[in-house]
Specification:
Layout (H helix, E strand, L loop, with lengths): L8 H6 L4 H20 L16 H22 L5 H17 L7 H15 L6 H7 L11 H15 L10 H22 L32 H15 L10 H15 L5 H8 L6 H25 L3 H14 L9 H33 L1
Helix pairs in contact: 3-4, 3-5, 4-5, 5-7, 8-9, 8-10, 9-10, 10-12
């Protein structure tokens, strides 16, 4: 049975009604986590508020690791289905929608997201392979990383409410590209250099492999495979932002396609009218959809501009993270080691009580 986005758990549980609602939710979750961190009994107390990450600094780290998922998939699996890396990015962003990087290290959540996404999308990569290929210098260094990931899997899925089916923009994109090509071909044949499908410049190479190479007014000169590939790259970057929590994947795909076509000098208003306007729809409905398309691009590009970092900046932020994150979840700290020793003692004591009870029961039966 096909699950429509409008009735999906993604739409009901992970999409907010407005940017303000989403921002308030994220800031409240951040403030709650920060309050809990301040109450922790650390061996070396933190006395300065500036030692903790700010909300914006946390967002920069999230975007950095989300992009790392995409880049590492491109490095090791350049022919991978985009739904796999897209699903991993969704899981990663959803986890930090409800949690902070100052708890579990984002490297663990990154590997966890990739591991669960490969399972969900039936893309066969072993956990040990993921751990090796997605290795980074800034990760935690527990004795057995694979064991740490598998032991955390259920807790990770609980945070996601076990919503492991993700609607993504890559599937509707292919249909939108085919539709846009058909529409622009008809416009070109009917009206020649029509106002609704105009292009800037003149053609230099009709056999070019880049979507930017064809510059005549005819859509037949456009390399539509290259347009699709370019739009996929745009979507991969936008999917690392907050647009996933605000708009349906199909509208995100359309916005990215319009963005790429506009970059090529194509005016897409009549195409959008054909897509959205029906006989009984009002001009207001069309205007609302156009605003949605424009807002998606604005939100995604502004998020990327605001939270993108250089290598030196992310190095500083990760250093600050090490100093303020939950020490009881950091294998490098004394607090973590003492907590593990306490767990082991309780486990041994529990086993001793169980054996003693079993021994008494056997003795009573023999007596």
């Amino acid at each position: 049975k096909t699950i429509m986005f409008s009735t999906s758990s993604q739409r009901q549980n992970w999409v907010c009604k407005s940017e303000d609602e989403l921002l308030e939710l994220r800031e409240n979750n951040f403030d709650d986590t920060l309050a809990k961190l301040k109450e922790l009994d650390r061996i070396t107390p933190i006395t300065e508020m500036s030692a903790y990450l700010s909300f914006d600094e946390s967002e920069k780290i999230v975007l950095h690791y989300c992009r790392m998922i995409v880049n590492l998939f491109e490095t090791y699996y350049p022919k991978h289905p985009r739904r796999v890396s897209g699903c991993a990015c969704s899981f990663f962003c959803r986890y930090y929608q409800k949690n902070s990087v100052m708890e579990y290290h984002p490297w663990l959540i990154m590997v966890m997201s990739v591991f669960v996404a490969c399972k969900s999308e039936e893309f066969n990569i072993g956990l040990d392979t993921i751990v090796v290929q997605f290795d980074t210098k800034d990760k935690d260094d527990p004795t057995n990383t694979s064991s740490a990931v598998t032991s955390f899997e259920v807790k990770f899925c609980e945070v996601l409410h076990f919503h492991l089916f993700v609607h993504m923009p890559f599937r509707p994109l292919r249909g939108l590209v085919v539709h846009a090509r058909s529409f622009l071909d008809n416009e070109s044949s009917d009206g020649g250099n029509s106002d609704s499908c105009s292009r800037d410049g003149e053609s230099n190479n009709n056999n070019a492999t880049s979507p930017h190479a064809a510059t005549t007014s005819s859509s037949q000169d456009i390399n539509w495979d290259a347009v699709h590939d370019q739009t996929v790259l745009v979507l991969s970057d936008w999917w690392c932002t907050t647009v996933e929590f605000l708009y349906p994947p199909s509208q995100i795909a359309l916005s990215a396609l319009v963005h790429v076509l506009t970059e090529l000098g194509i005016e897409c208003e009549s195409y959008l009218q054909t897509l959205f306007t029906t006989h009984d729809s009002s001009e207001e409905t069309f205007d609302v959809f156009c605003r949605h398309i424009a807002n998606i691009k604005r939100i995604a590009t502004s998020h990327i501009k605001k939270y993108s970092t250089t290598r030196s900046e992310i190095k500083v932020l990760l250093g600050k993270l090490e100093g303020c994150r939950n020490p009881f979840l950091n294998p490098k700290t004394q607090e973590f080691k003492l907590a593990q020793q306490g767990k082991m003692k309780r486990k041994v004591a529990k086993e001793a009580r169980r054996l003693k009870k079993a021994h008494v029961q056997i003795k009573n039966e023999e007596g």
